[in-house]
Write a structure and sequence with these properties.
single chain, alpha/beta, Rossmann fold, about 20% strand, binds the ligand CSC[C@H]1O[C@H](OP(=O)(O)O)[C@H](O)[C@@H]1O, binds adenine, glycosyltransferase, Nucleoside_phosphorylase_d, MTAP, S-methyl-5-thioadenosine phosphorylase activity, EC 2.4.2.28
């Protein structure tokens, strides 16, 4: 099967250059419009698609990003592997602004977003015990190391609703009691939806600040974040462009089963399924719904 890498670029990353046959394409989905058109092309002989999570010009807030449409659109294009690139705050002294973290766990504190493609008329429960793909995460770690980026392997990302940053009490709780490593506003429900869509998903978190817990750094300040983001964004793009060569143009089935997540997940009896919802699931769950 062909590898098709989909990159969801976060704050500060609104395009990538150097794709052959680059073209911004409009993808329509049953879940509404994605955040923006999707930049498609080929890099090092491998198909790539790039979607700016907040849209070009940063139009969508973390709450209003159309997460379902974004994942559906990538799946509909034929993407097999999704790399999420995000700005985040750090809860660890040793994870400093400018460092990258290959996130492997999440705590989802978001509450104002649609979190599933499934629902009344087609109920499904997938496992997100291991929400990121180890194979894809390893490739991201190697790409970051090869690019000379200071990168931490593994970390727990607290997904908050936003758009305001955390209070000091929240920041301390996430760090001291909950053991989180980084904080952002967008990787959930994105990672859960990628699993429902049977896509491999890896999260590259680019640290921009120490959130508000750090005694030497005070409050989170978006102008400081943007300054760090500018440097991070170049490193993020460098990392992403190393992935095609590392992953190769051909891929086997995912050894961790990301691409079979729906195999035993759908509970609704075939005769009880809502035809309208089943139709909406054509891209996401077509493999199992037929
Ligand atoms: C620019 S600061 C807050 C903003 O940045 C992050 O976005 P993304 O994850 O898309 O890089 C964070 O989650 C907030 O949305
Ligand atoms: N401290 C922080 N909290 C939430 N999202 C962020 N994105 C970048 N820094 C952040």
């Amino acid at each position: 099967m062909d590898t098709y890498i989909g990159v969801i670029g976060g704050s500060g990353i609104y395009e990538i250059d150097g794709l052959e046959n680059a073209e911004w394409v409009t993808v329509e989905t049953p879940w509404g419009a994605p955040s923006d058109q999707i930049l498609t092309g080929v890099y090092d002989g491998v198909k790539m698609a790039f979607l700016p999570r907040h849209g070009r010009g940063h139009v969508h807030s973390p709450t209003t990003v159309p997460y379902r449409a974004n994942i559906d659109a990538l799946k509909r294009l034929g993407v097999t592997d999704v790399i999420s690139v995000s700005a985040c705050g750090s809860f660890r002294d040793e994870m400093a602004p400018g460092d990258f973290v290959i996130v492997d766990q999440f705590i989802d504190r978001t509450f104002a977003r649609e979190k599933s493609f499934f629902g009344t008329g087609c109920v499904a429960h997938v496992s997100v015990a291991h929400p990121t793909c180890p194979r894809l995460s390893e490739a991201c770690f190697t790409a970051a190391t090869d690019a000379g980026i200071k990168v931490h392997k593994g970390g727990t990302y607290l997904a908050m609703e936003g758009p305001q940053f955390s209070t000091l009490a929240e920041s301390k709780m996430y760090r001291e009691s909950w053991g989180c490593d980084v904080i952002g506003m967008t990787n959930m429900p994105e990672a859960k939806l990628a699993r429902e869509a049977e896509l491999c998903y890896a999260s590259v978190a680019m640290i921009t600040d120490y959130d508000s817990w750090h005694p030497d750094h005070g409050e989170v300040d978006v102008t400081e974040i943007i300054k760090t983001l500018v440097g991070n964004a170049d490193k993020g793009r460098d990392l992403v462009k190393r992935l095609p060569a590392l992953l190769g143009a051909e891929r086997d089935d995912c050894p961790h089963g990301c691409d079979k997540a729906l195999e035993f997940a759908i509970l609704t009896a075939p005769e009880k399924r809502d035809p309208a919802l089943v139709a909406k699931l054509d891209a996401v769950a077509g493999r199992v719904l037929g």
